[in-house]
Amino acid sequence: MKKIGLYLMILAPIVGFGQSSNGRIQELWNIIHKQEENAEVKSMLPNVKEVLLLSKKNKDYSSMMKAMFYEAKINILIEEDNKFDVNTVLDLFIAESNKTTGTSKAILDTYIAEIYNMYYTANKYKLRGRTSVEGGAKASIEYWTEEDFKREIDKYYQRGLTIAARDKTAVIGGWADVFYLSASNLTIDWKKFTVYDALRLNYIENLQHNSFNLTDQERKVIKEKREQLQTELLKDVLATGDQAMYVYIEMYLTASNGDSEVIKEKYASLLKDYPKEPFLYEGYAKYLKGIELITFIDKAIQLFPGTKTAENLLAEKKYAEGIRLNYSVNEYVLDEQAIPVSIGHQNTDKVYVKILKNTNASKQVDRFYSFGDKEYYALEKEMPTVTSYELKLGEFKDYEMHRTIAALKPLAAGRYYVVFSSVPFDQIKENASDVQISHINVTPNVIVVNQGKLRAYDRKSGKPLSNTKIHISNESERRDNSNYWETVITTDSNGDATIDVSKLGSYLFMNIKDEKVYYSPYVSRYYNNSANEDEITYKATILTDRAIYRPSQVLYFKSIVGKKTKLSEQVFAKAKVTVVLSDANGNEVSKQELMTNEFGSVNGQFVLPANGRLGNYEIEVKINETNAGWHNVLVEEYKRPKFEVVFDEPKAIYKLNEEVAITGKAKAFLGSNIDNAKVVYRVERQEIWPRWICGPSFPYHYDRSETMTQGETVTDASGNFTVKFTALPKEGSTSTLARTFSYNIYADVIDQNGETHSSTQTVVVGEKNIELAIELPVVTSAKELSNFSVSTKNLNGVDYPSQGELTIYPLIAPTSKRITDKFNLNEGDYQLYNYAEFVALFPNLTYGDEADSDKWKEGASVFNTSFDTAKNSKITYEGAKDLPSGNYMIKGYVLENGVKNEVEKKIVFRNEELKEVSTVLVELKTKQKTYQAGDKATIEVRSAEDNTYVYVEVQANGKILTKKVMKVGKKGSNLDISIKQDYKKVTVSALALKHNIAAQDGHEVALKGEESKLQLVIESFRDKVEPGAKEKWSLKVKGQGKEQVIAELLATMYDESLDQFTPHNLDLGLKEPKYYYELPTITKYDFSTLNGTGYFRSLVNQQYDRSMAFAIDRPMVLNTYGFNIFGGYGVLYGSSARMKGQAVMMEGDANKVFVAAPTVSKKEDIREDVPMAGAPEMENSKGDIQAVGSESKAETNNVTPVRKNLRETAFFYPTLKTDENGDVKFEFTMPEALTKWKFMAVAHTKNLEQAYAEKSIVTQKELMVIPNLPRFLREGDKLTLSTKVVNLSDVTRKGKATLQLHNAYSNELLVEKVVDFLVNKDESSAVNWDIEVPTGVEVVSCRVVAVSDNYSDGEESVVPVLSNRILVTETMPIYVKEGQNKQFTFKDYEKNSSNTLQNHKLTLELTTNPIWNAVFALPYLQESVYDSSEQVFGRVFANAVATKILNDNPKIKTVFDQWNVKGEVASKLEQNQELKNILLAETPWAREAANEVEQMKRMAVLFDLNTMQNELSNSLNKLTDLQNADGGFSWFKGGKSDIYMTQSIVEGFGTLRRMGVLDNILPINSGYKTMLNQAIEYMDQVQYNSFVEQAKFGEKGKVTSIGTHYLYTRSFFIGEYGINEKYSPMITAIRKSIESEKPSNNLYQDAMRAVIAKRFGVQKTADNIVKGLLETAVQSDEMGMYWKNNTAGWLWYQAPVETQVAIIEAANEVDQEKYSNAIEQMKVWLLKNKQTTGWASTKSTTKAVYALLNTGKSWMDTEKGIEVKVGGYPINTTETAQMGSGYIKQNWSKAEMTAKKGVVELTKTSPGIAYGAMYWQYFENLDAINAAETGIKMNKKLYVKANTDKGQVLREITKETPVKVGDVVTVRLEINVDRDMDYVHLKDMRASGFEPTNVLSGYRWKGEFGYYEETRDASTNFFISRLRKGSYVFEYDLRANVSGNFSNGITTMQSMYAPELSAHSEGVRVEIKN
């Protein structure tokens, strides 16, 4: 069982109420507690067992329960899951409960409920993906559903209470520490609290906070139960006379509700009734503030003088009366004018200001400060004081925080520190005054950056700073190293300048030369230089005949290639292109070299592969190896649908608590109605909380769905059906807003022939059901306001005619209009200055609410009108043209049942018709006119202020036409733009910067819409034709006016039913849409320095003691003592086409679905790709592609014509050309499938003009047969084949329907059955034939014919017949370690007694030295495009260590060379294909396998020492280049130094040093020593700063994980890189803390602690830490030594392989000899982990390999010390063994297979491990296969997914509840894996009577793991890339499609990395009823 999270919480001994009467028991507990403190976990167990035995003997149940928990938490940590897990714990507690009576039983039952609840809480994220099993899951707890936990938890809680209620005299004082107090500070004697009351309180808590998904009724029941329990509990406690206890319980229960107002009200009520309970005053005070709080505390202190309560309340009062301040000021401000600062202040009306001049040469502004008055005085001493003064603020006496804007005195340009103090600066006292500081820059100028561009302005006037020098550097200070650079660039006349591209990709420091104000923006390296604006690009549009295909079908394509510049587009004619088809794994399948024609098009076809992974295939068009376009199609094994289900729009108004009726329709694609079909439906309610009716959009919260009703109905003669339900709201939910609920209707329609399709509809019903929308933009013009629309819709978005009224009001600003900005300053809750004073100080800062139109008053209405959308939805407002520009509110309402549903909409009205003065800083104004080529567009640029500089940029099609600076004013200036023919999008953008405010406006010039020059008209066409009819259609391409159009046309038609899987159309744009064009460059500039606020840091931190001793905690908690739950030929899949005489299928290859051709007389008549039943396909055309659509061979030997040409694409004509009149004519023969067809035509010209036309056509007859055949048949199955006879004639018809099955190869008649039918006009009737599937036939031809008088129809298709025998592979994993002799018996093989089983092969596979699998994972890391510091160092580390390993072990090169020569360098995914259930090419992991092979082959580079020396030198130089000036490393170059990144790199160098790599492998001249020294200095300083700051808070020496990592890293360099004396106190403090720390439950950190202690000479501590680590390890015979809580996570130390290596290294360094056996066992786990998982090629892999090779015993030559016997006879392990790994593989044929060979004996005398498996392959009938398992265990069961009033449940299949046609059947798999596994393949076979509900392949996640799902005809594959150790429930659905008795096959699961780990289910039969 998988354990999640923590396994053991090391607790200090818990003091209980009393001591055990047995002295020995107490003595043992004292020992146990001491051992627990020292993490001596395994050592505790014997003592715990003795306590348990003595406690039972002495009937000391309190001690017994405690011992049970201790035993559980120890074993669950150190035992393997198959020996001890949560089920074991529960079994022990349940067994003890069954033996006990009275109070002890009550407590035990409650404990059982708690354990269940623990497990549920930890795993609920998985459980919510599981469907409830009716009657409860029978399996162990890991496979339960939420309902099972809900039931069992409540059952044991209730049972415990019932038993406890029998003895209400038992008090918790008699139960030692079974209960412990969290409210122990009170004087209440909780020992008198009864056990019954304690358990009641515990149960109330569970009911209050349970996390189950509950229905309305369940919530109601729980609420009533909780309230009843609370009432009874309070009554009983009050009856005891203990008033304090009663008050406290009442307070606790009230506080549990969480509503502060309710709590406050209740506490006030309690105070009236119980005024003498002091803690009640403390509790009530928590909900008061301000004057109310102070007054209350004063009263309480008088009542309880000198008490602890008075002391606590005085502390709270002191805090409330204390001075608190906070500030916000802009980082960059204007010079010589008042500086606004936002000040928050409490209990003071003044602050003190000091301005210090920043004279530091560094350009860095974020200087680090620590707390303390010394730091402040040091700053004051370093920086000269400019001024100091007092700021007077508003005076308040309410003890609450207030905020305002205050003015700092003007400053000259420069850099300053602003210091604020709560007291005069000469009165500052440490920890008694609040002093805060921030840096500000005072400047009249500004620099803004846009990637590689910058612009400089005057902040006040906005004038661009032309010809101005800008100084730029990459560091804050000048450095004498190769990293540092600086440059000077000069702005142009617009104030623009360009930064050298080579300087990008980092933070830069820039300033206007000679100005001491700096900017430090990050300048992106991804700078798109506009110099490439006119480059030529190509766009290939790819068109296919349809969007989805089956394997082996033909894909037809056409591509139109366009050539584009910014201002022109045309076809790319007479050019070579390459068209490539890639499969779902991204591998190239085929490619074609083609030449575009005069219309720039190419066309062709691809035959899709028969095998391989299903999913997305890609067609790519390349020009000169560069991608020009791509298009995806799906390749899936689907079955063509015959009908669809569609719900009607919910048009009505629906009301809560009233009946809702929703109609739907089932319609056949061929045009007939689906009558008399069964409809199964359910309705689920989901609360939308809340729905904002008649208002702006609102982020809805959706509640959990609940089933409202479910049932069945039937379709009428027209195929219609109705679902009715009452729209009941959710009980108990209230809101001030309108409540709204969505009712989701799910309907499955089962046709008479068994075919089933589904549909869903959502109906929204609320308390308000009509929505009014005012269709106006936020910024509205006069033209738009003059004539606009309103819409009234129901909640489902459907128009609903309604009446209402609209009124428009002006919004009146409180002050005159100014150009203002808030500058990100909080204006606060009061104004310090009046308006005139404020404006005088801050002319452009917003005053209060003056800019907040939400708070403006409404003026008198300017327009009012009523409307009735039933008559007209247009609103006409003629006065809009005279309305002044400004802000307006439109209010409206719509009447619903006489009640107003109101709506408000604010607009900003801009009247272009009036000559108004602008009110904004910059504005673009134009007439609402449309321009065309040749016109001159005039744009007026204006401002509310004269002398405003505006940067204007004009773009056409994304290309900059004009950019200039204009000086404008109130009158405005005109900008003229000449409109040219090629312009598709013209934009004008304006930017003005003034008064430190940036404003922009943009305008898109209205161009005359590009009217399509082409029209495509279908001139002759029929929308209903008979199958097989010959058709002649004509199309016409028209141009504008009488223009003659020469165009190329694609015409195609396909089965439209395929759109049910994925839609398809050819209406694709050949030209670039205009929204693809570049945005104006001015929108990309960063103006954040105009209003960015600085960060204030408190230098002298005033600390208030607000620690209130009182808290309303749960009085007592049931003690669980720290227990926590968290503790071989391969079978081919696919539908490969097969011809007679080709590759005979191996006997038993039951899963391969073959599609074969019917027998014909001539070889040349054999069709290459005859379709499977339900999936017809077109013929493969051998000639010209336009031959598609030619007539099929006529039927000559049947009276009744039988439809055989059932292909899905009717025709594909890619290069039809218009004649001189623009006409196109073509002929085709209609396919014979009865369905709806989609005809599409696309015409295009040489200048990429296009036109599109689309029509639907139906093929039908008056009498038709519509069979519903299964995808395949299986030998021996008995089933009912069904067809529907449809009568579209005008009379009732009767006749005979015949079924014939022929051998498709020999044409032998196998089955013929005739039945009568009678079908009314315009209706249908089903006919059925019972058959038994014949044996010995691979493919049958199924012919269904219906004849009635002169009317007849027939359809013939082929169906593959699968064998009921299958090749099964069972495995027996084997393994052995040093010094072991192990015997493995293959029991299933040895005891096999099946009469039908036929042996095939026995295979022994053994790797005698698997360390080589790890060695060849050694990475050689290549350079990446963008190197981070981590990547660069990772390359240095991995390559250097790998080189060291190879130098030290020359055998590796010898082995590698031999493997390479023999072709044995292969991924484990590629090996042993014949022993796996699927070919690698058919999985999603082909690319991963290729990557592994490439990685292994790159090892060859490591053997070239010269190359490696050169690469290491280059990498070290690059790493040096990445080092910052302060010695630290950032993630990427130019970033700020990061302490973890720096420590990781230094640690890596330390590891290299310890390995002997630094001086022996790394180049001597690389200069790494200097780099290393600087990095260590940076580390020391940063950690010292942190240490000093911690000391200020009394946390001196407290060590975080990063602190431990620091000292571990530093311990590598104690000698050569000595520790500065300054840091000695820090090192000593941290070291002592690490030595004294208890085990941290962080394995990685504890391993580091051990190494630190060892290196600093504290051997005993180091030894104790390692010993403690080993105490918590699991010891496994197979897996070696490992830790259960060593699991992967997001934190840096949560890495299993790295953690295991760290512990190995710690044990090896601390005492190699003492821990030698443990080291060997830990190495075993590493190799066993590598057996089933793919190690990433990283630093961690290198360290793991190094640890395997350089710790403990040598495992390099251990393949020689092993003996192997099979059946008692020795196997030669050297003759054919692979060099190095000793890998051997031996097969025994059927004749050689004896029972004795099922016994394998292994003896190993050499170090290390060996592992492998015995594989038994045999043929067996599917129904006779028994289940088998290894490290993978699996249980499979089928259920009917039934609708119930409580939701969907899984119902067991019995005689009373059988599977019926149309039912959803859920496959439920219970899976357990005993180790982490990568690349796991799960394959589930299915009966031919089932149809998959999901056809499309793709990656999915179902709550427990992610996987790639692929649906095949006879099975479904699930590919799980990563499966962690643990238990899982996996569900997926099938649909019962055909009745009968079927073999359902088996389910197999196998690790593709380690195929010996596999399992399969037993073979079963399934019966489906009609």
UniProtKB/TrEMBL annotation:
Transmembrane segments: none annotated. GO terms for molecular function: endopeptidase inhibitor activity. Residues 922-1061 form the Alpha-2-macroglobulin bait region domain. Residues 1209-1299 form the Alpha-2-macroglobulin domain. Residues 1172-1198 are annotated as: Disordered. Belongs to the protease inhibitor I39 (alpha-2-macroglobulin) family. Bacterial alpha-2-macroglobulin subfamily. This is Alpha-2-macroglobulin. It comes from Myroides marinus.
